[in-house]
C-alpha cells in the first residue's frame, strides 16, 4: 500500500487539475492525496464532509488503487460512482450508512483485495454477495450485524488472509466455519463471546501470526492450540482468564514480538519468561514491586507500561536492571520523588510518562541526568513554567506532553 501524504486542501485542487484535468471535488472533503512516479492519482482519502453528491463529482481516475471514505456521509446511492474506479484494491467504508445493497454496485470492483466495513449496516445477506470478490484478502467486519450464518458463507472464501470480527455477535459455532481458511494469517475477535472451543476448532490454521482475543472468555486451555502457531508474532489476551501457567506453556513460541495481558491474572513474573519480548503492558496490576523482581536483567525489554498499577519506589530498583529500557509509563502509580531520583540512573530512557503521580517539581531537575530523554508526559500544573524552561534548556530535544 502506498503511504499517504497529507496536503493542504486548497493546494490539492491545483494538483488534481494538473493530474486529471478536473478540479471537481470540493477542497473541504479532501483529506489525503498521493500520486505515483508518473503523476497518476493512486491514493485518495475523503473525510466526513463527503456525501453522495461529492462522489458524483469523481473525475475519471483509472489508476486509483486506494480509496478511504471513513466517517463520510454517504449511502448506497453513492456506490455507483465508486464502482467506476475499477483499479481499486483497497476500499474503506468504515462508519458509513451503507447497507447490503451497496454490493450490487461494488461487485464490479474485481481487483479489490482489502475491504473495510467497520460499523456499517452490513448483514449476513451482504456477506453472501462478497463471494464475487475472488481476490479479496483482508476483510474488516468489526461492529457489524454479522452472525454465525455469515461466517458459514465466508468459509467458502478460502483466499482470505485477514479477518476482523471485533464487537460482533459471532459464537464458537460460527468460528468453527473458519477452519477451512487455511491461509488465514490475521484473526481479530476482540470483544466477542467466544470461548476456548472457538480457538480449539482452529487447531489446523497454523499460518496465523496475529491473533487478538481481548475481552473474550478464553482460558489457559487454548495454549495447546497456540503452541502450534509457530509463526505467531502478535497475541492480545487482555481482559481474559489467562494466567502465568499459560505464559509458561507458550514459552517455545520464539517469534512472539507483542504480548498484551492487561487486566488478566498474569504478572510481570510470567511475562519475564519471554526473554525476547520488547514490550510489557501490565496496566492495572497489583503487587507490581514483587513481580518486577522476576523481570530483573531482561536484556530485550525496551518498553514497559504500568499505568494505574501499585508500583512504589521499591519497584524502581528492578527497572534499573533493564539495560535496554527506553519507554516507561508510570501514570497513576505510587512512585514518589525518591523513586524518580533512582530512576534517573537509567540513562537509556527516551520517553517517560509521570501523569497522575506524587512526584513534585523539586525532583524534576534530576531528569537532566537522562541524556536521551525526548518525551515527558506530565499532568497539567505538575511543573512550573520556570522549571519547564530550565529542563528544556538542559535537554534541547525534550518535548512536553
CATH class of the largest domain: Alpha Beta
Unreliable segments of 5+ consecutive residues: 1-23
CATH architecture of the largest domain: Alpha-Beta Horseshoe
CATH fold node name of the largest domain: Leucine-rich repeat, LRR (right-handed beta-alpha superhelix)
Number of extended strands: 17
Total domains = 3
From the alpha carbons, calculate the radius of gyration and give it in angstroms.
25 Å
Distance between the termini: 31 Å
Structural class: alpha/beta
* Count, helices: 15
**Form type:** globular
CATH superfamily membership of the largest domain: Ribonuclease Inhibitor
In what order do the strands lie side by side in the largest sheet? 1-2-3-4-5-6-7-8-9-10-11
Average pLDDT level: 87
Name a few traits of the molecule.
single chain, 401 residues, alpha/beta, Leucine-rich repeat, LRR (right-handed beta-alpha superhelix), 3 domains, six-stranded parallel sheet, disordered N terminus
Amino acid at each position: 500500500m502506498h503511504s499517504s501524504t497529507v496536503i493542504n486542501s486548497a493546494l490539492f485542487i491545483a494538483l488534481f487539475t494538473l493530474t486529471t484535468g478536473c478540479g471537481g471535488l470540493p477542497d473541504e472533503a479532501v483529506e489525503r492525496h498521493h500520486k505515483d512516479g508518473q503523476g497518476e492519482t493512486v491514493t485518495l482519502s475523503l473525510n466526513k464532509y463527503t456525501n453522495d453528491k461529492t462522489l458524483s463529482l469523481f473525475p475519471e481516475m483509472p489508476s486509483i488503487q486506494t480509496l478511504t471514505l471513513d466517517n463520510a456521509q454517504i449511502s448506497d446511492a453513492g456506490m455507483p460512482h465508486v464502482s467506476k474506479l475499477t483499479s481499486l484494491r483497497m476500499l474503506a467504508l468504515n462508519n458509513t450508512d451503507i447497507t447490503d445493497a451497496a454490493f450490487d454496485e461494488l461487485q464490479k470492483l474485481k481487483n479489490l483485495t482489502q475491504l473495510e466495513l467497520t460499523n456499517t449496516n452490513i448483514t449476513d445477506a451482504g456477506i453472501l454477495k462478497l463471494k464475487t470478490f475472488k481476490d479479496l484478502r483482508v476483510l474488516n467486519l468489526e461492529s457489524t450485524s454479522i452472525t454465525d450464518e455469515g461466517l458459514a458463507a465466508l468459509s467458502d472464501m478460502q483466499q482470505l488472509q485477514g479477518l476482523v470480527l471485533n464487537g460482533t455477535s459471532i459464537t464458537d459455532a460460527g468460528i468453527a466455519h473458519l477452519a477451512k481458511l487455511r491461509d488465514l494469517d490475521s484473526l481479530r475477535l476482540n470483544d466477542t463471546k467466544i470461548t476456548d472451543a472457538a480457538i480449539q476448532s482452529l487447531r489446523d490454521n497454523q499460518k496465523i501470526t496475529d491473533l487478538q482475543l481481548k475481552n473474550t472468555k478464553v482460558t489457559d486451555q487454548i495454549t495447546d492450540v497456540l503452541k502450534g502457531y509457530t509463526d505467531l508474532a502478535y497475541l492480545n489476551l487482555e481482559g481474559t482468564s489467562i494466567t502465568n501457567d499459560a505464559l509458561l506453556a507458550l514459552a517455545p513460541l520464539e517469534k512472539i514480538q507483542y504480548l498484551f495481558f492487561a487486566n488478566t491474572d498474569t504478572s510481570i513474573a510470567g511475562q519475564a519468561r519471554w526473554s525476547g519480548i520488547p514490550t510489557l503492558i501490565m496496566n492495572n496490576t497489583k503487587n507490581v514491586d514483587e513481580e518486577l523482581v522476576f523481570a530483573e536483567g531482561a536484556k530485550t525489554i525496551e518498553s514497559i507500561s504500568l499505568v494505574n498499577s501499585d508500583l512504589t519506589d521499591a519497584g524502581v530498583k528492578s527497572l534499573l536492571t533493564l539495560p535496554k529500557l527506553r519507554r516507561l509509563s508510570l501514570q497513576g502509580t505510587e512512585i514518589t520523588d525518591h523513586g524518580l531520583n533512582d530512576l534517573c540512573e537509567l540513562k537509556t530512557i527516551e520517553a517517560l510518562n509521570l501523569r497522575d503521580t506524587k512526584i513534585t517539581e523539586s525532583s524534576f531537575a534530576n531528569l537532566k541526568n537522562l541524556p536521551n530523554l525526548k518525551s515527558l508526559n506530565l499532568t497539567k500544573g505538575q511543573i512550573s513554567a520556570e522549571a519547564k524552561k530550565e529542563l528544556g534548556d538542559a535537554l534541547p530535544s525534550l518535548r512536553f506532553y
